[in-house]
Design a protein that fits this description.
1 helix; single chain; mainly beta
Length: 606
């Protein structure tokens, strides 16, 4: 029969069917040995129970031999051998151009075939050296692509085995099939609508084509994993991975390697893992977990309120990021940007570098510091109000759990919170007020700083002679430390320590002072009160206001005790203890070298 009809079925006992028309043709044989020839279109040719010969001609044709020993020729185009109607499992060898079992007990031969569709049973289908499409059915199929860039579709079977072979193969999974890929066999891709999948070894790319949330884990190679439109969790595993979350609130984990994570829209969590990763959150309030100093975060303006979480000892917020959280246990330095940042420390001693914006600094546990030293104008910081009244840049910062403040190079006002703070001025004329607590006040290099510790045992560090240290009576036992060449204790200050290495002149007041020299040749004058003078290293001299005849010198286990026995004449120098002091000098010029007196402990000389 010759026909131009696009649909034709041979009547019984007619053997040959030839399509002479145009377009797609559907031709069906009968129980005889048929010869069916298609045309130039995309034809569907189906044999019957006989030994049929099907020739698709030009076009992308589908050939169904049916029962019998068939000869199938695809011709030009991308042609398909379809065994989906077979009564049993098939064994197809595209590499040998034949079937060892067509599902009906016969062996077909074929040529010009690029695609094979298996039966509903447990098929074994081999490709050839070219790129093939091999589709399993409902059975547990074994599909082997061999050479070429193959597409392997396992079908609905519960336990398919897919092996692409060499070439860049594509696997389409509808069930949890077993994929076998050897190292170096191309750049391979899995596409699936399953909602969870662990990528097989030596497969590079995973694409989610389904709906709902997707959970995926990569392998040890460099993977490209693409999620869908819901809240996906993608884990790249080892290797230099690229993860695309898409829409939805995704969690992306790079794992080991140099990874690129792209969150897309949604409130995403991006964790690069070890290695120097590139993290791009996209739209939404994203959270970045960084653990390498080489990690790079990319956020554009207006893409949400984003947070960086790190266990590194130092991190600087890049532009487009708002918040920084320290997740480690050690000391941390957090540096903001020009936005209004919230920076939160951990349990260690944290340092926050203040910048532009109305920032919030949460110190947490530990001794935490806000550092304004890089700011270009004076600041007013009052820890007792938990707000920086003036951050030097026209804004105000909120402070919580902050114990230390470092000022600017300008005229700052730094006020403590009454618990015990360290306030450090800079090069300006600063005013530091400790309030209650055991405070440390460091004047800095300003011309004339004012330091007032308040109640508590305060420590003052002075660097310029013009500094004013103010203490009221009964406000604790307070200490001045200085590297200057001379310092006289003001009223209500008890102790003086020289921290320099040159000669020092230290003078006490009417209280019982402890004066401690440094490594140079020091002059120490206790003044009134029962003082302790510690010379330290060097050739040190203790100075007394009275005549030599007014004093007795007694050796002790610690050093020497100098007693003023005539307080009415020259003022009361009290009873001073000298440790590490080599000489004493009196108002009348008498100078004694103590070691030359030859005194043993408890011996006294007048």
């Amino acid at each position: 029969v010759e026909t131009t009809l696009n649909l034709f079925t041979l009547s019984a006992h007619v053997e040959r069917l030839i399509f002479t028309g145009t377009g797609a043709f559907t031709g069906t044989g009968n129980a005889s040995d048929n010869a069916i020839t298609g045309g130039t279109g995309h034809d569907l040719l189906t044999g019957g129970a006989g030994a049929d010969t099907l020739d698709g001609g030009n076009g992308d044709d589908v050939l169904r031999g049916g029962a019998g020993i068939d000869i199938l020729t695809g011709g030009a185009g991308i042609d398909t051998l379809d065994y989906s109607l077979a009564a049993a499992a098939t064994v197809v060898r595209m590499d040998l151009n034949r079937t060892t079992n067509d599902g009906d007990g016969a062996q077909d031969t074929f040529s010009g075939i690029e695609t094979v569709i298996g039966s509903g049973f447990n098929d074994v289908i081999f490709g050839d050296a070219q790129g093939n499409v091999i589709m399993g059915g409902a059975g547990s199929d074994t599909l082997l692509g061999l050479g070429g860039d193959d597409i392997l579709i396992g079908g609905a079977g519960a336990a398919n085995t897919l092996q692409g072979g060499t070439g860049d193969d594509r696997y389409i999974l509808t069930t949890y099939d077993s994929i076998v890929e050897l190292a170096g066999e191309g750049n391979d891709t899995v596409e699936t609508a399953l909602n969870s999948l662990v990528l097989a070894a030596n497969v590079e790319t995973l694409i989610f084509t389904g709906t709902g949330a997707f959970y995926a884990v990569g392998n040890a190679t460099a993977n490209l994993i693409t999620g869908g439109g819901s809240g996906d969790q993608l884990d790249g595993g080892q290797g230099d991975d690229v993860l695309w979350g898409g829409d939805g609130n995704d969690t992306l984990i790079g794992g080991a390697g140099i990874d690129a994570l792209n969150g897309g829209a949604g409130a995403d969590i991006l964790n690069g893992g070890s290695g120097d990763d590139v993290l791009t959150g996209g739209l939404g309030d994203d959270r970045y977990v960084v653990d390498s100093s080489g990690d790079q975060i990319i956020e554009l303006a207006g893409q949400g309120v984003d947070t960086v979480e790190t266990s590194l000892s130092i991190w600087t917020l890049a532009n487009g990021l708002e918040n920084l959280v320290y997740a480690g246990t050690g000391a941390f330095t957090g540096i903001g940007n020009t936005a209004n940042n919230i920076i939160t420390g951990g349990v260690g001693d944290d340092t926050f570098i203040a910048g532009l914006g109305n920032d919030t600094f949460n110190g947490g546990a530990g001794i935490d510091t806000v550092d304004y030293s890089a700011v270009g104008a004076a600041v007013v910081v009052k820890l007792n109000g938990s707000v920086t009244q003036n951050d030097g840049q026209g804004g105000a910062d909120a402070l919580s759990g902050i114990e230390r403040v470092i000022g600017t190079a300008f005229d700052d006002l730094l006020v403590g919170d009454g618990i015990g703070n360290t306030l450090i001025g800079g090069a300006g004329r600063d005013t530091l007020l400790g309030l209650a607590g055991d405070d440390v006040l460091v004047g800095g290099e300003g011309v004339a700083n004012t330091l007032q510790g308040g109640s508590g045992n305060d420590r003052y560090v002075v660097s310029v002679a013009g500094d004013s240290v103010i203490e009221l009576a009964g406000e604790g036992t307070d200490t001045v430390e200085t590297a200057l060449g001379a310092w006289t204790l003001g009223a209500n200050l008890e102790n003086l320590i020289h921290t320099g290495s040159t000669a020092f002149m230290g003078t006490g007041n009417s209280l019982a002072n402890i004066l401690t020299g440094g490594s140079g040749d020091d002059l120490l004058r206790g003044g009134g009160g029962n003082d302790s003078l510690n010379g330290g290293q060097g050739d040190d001299i203790a100075l007394f206001a009275g005549l030599r005849s007014s004093y007795t010198i007694t050796a002790t286990a610690e050093g020497y005790r100098i007693t003023d026995n005539d307080a009415a004449v020259d003022g009361d120098d009290g009873v001073d203890l000298l440790v590490g002091v080599e000489k004493v000098r009196f108002r009348d010029g008498t100078t004694l070298t103590l070691s030359e007196l030859g005194l043993t402990p408890t011996q006294t000389v007048s």
